[in-house]
Amino acid sequence: MIRETATVKEFAPLKSSRLSDAIGEQIRTRLATGDLRPGDKLPSERELANQLNVSRNAVREALRMLEMSGVVKLQKGAKGGAFIGDGNAEVLATGLKDLLNLRGLTIEQLTESRIWLAEIVVRVACERATERDLDLLEANIDEAERCFARGDLDGKLACQIEFHNILARATGNPVLIIIIASTMDLMHHVAQTVGAESNDLALKSRRRFMKYFRARDIAAAVAEMTDHLEQLKARYVELMHERESRMTGVGANSAVQTNVK
């Protein structure tokens, strides 16, 4: 439910060399204390600038930064404005992706942590999954098989990524759901970078997994998922290192050519 501007307490004037940061921090503090909730509409730029005793440019910059963080949603039009968001897992995924690209996070660390997380999710989901969750997982595999049959490897990959998100939602734990969504978004990026698998091994593994999962055989379900992800880990690590080697070689050749000239 959206609470209009009039119901939101005024913001305190600010004095800071980095006003946009201070504005963002005050809004985050309001969220932490419960003064602001998802869906609440913030005052207009002009009103915020007056309340905070800052320029509208500082407010605009702060709102853009909060939008990038997933804290605020900016909407245009007659009913537009700045609204408190409900969280965006893509924000965390983007940060992880930057770490991977900047070498602050290795492919080995990413794939290893994915295996650990998957084990937790499978154990919890195996106990909590409803019939609807089971049906959604089966439907996901059906669609992945249709994609594979028509040669749509990108579609098959998207289904495989979503399979893990469905599993995470079956746990009913919002923390796991967010973490898995962010991790799988990054894994999607990695898979697209090295190229989607052109075989049906993952699909066969999914069918075996579902047999154990439906039977609530946690140990067997975990073992099947872990074995499959270990194989994927080996593939991703090998292909990512090959890609890095090629890129390093191209860079070295360019440098040599430049020096020769």
From TrEMBL:
Record carries keyword Transcription: yes
Show where the HTH gntR-type domain sits: 17-87
Gene3D superfamilies in UniProt: GntR ligand-binding domain-like, Winged helix-like DNA-binding domain superfamily/Winged helix DNA-binding domain
Which source organism does the UniProt entry give?
Answer: Chelativorans sp. (strain BNC1)
| SMART domains listed in its UniProt record | FCD, HTH_GNTR
The organism's superkingdom is given as Bacteria
Instruction: Give the matching InterPro entries.
Output: GntR_C (IPR011711), TF_FadR/GntR_C (IPR008920), Tscrpt_reg_HTH_GntR (IPR000524), WH-like_DNA-bd_sf (IPR036388), WH_DNA-bd_sf (IPR036390)
Positions in coiled-coil regions: 215-242
Record key words, sorted = Coiled coil, DNA-binding, Transcription, Transcription regulation
| UniProt GO molecular function | DNA binding; DNA-binding transcription factor activity
Instruction: Identify this protein by name.
Output: Transcriptional regulator, GntR family
Supply the PROSITE patterns for this chain.
HTH_GNTR
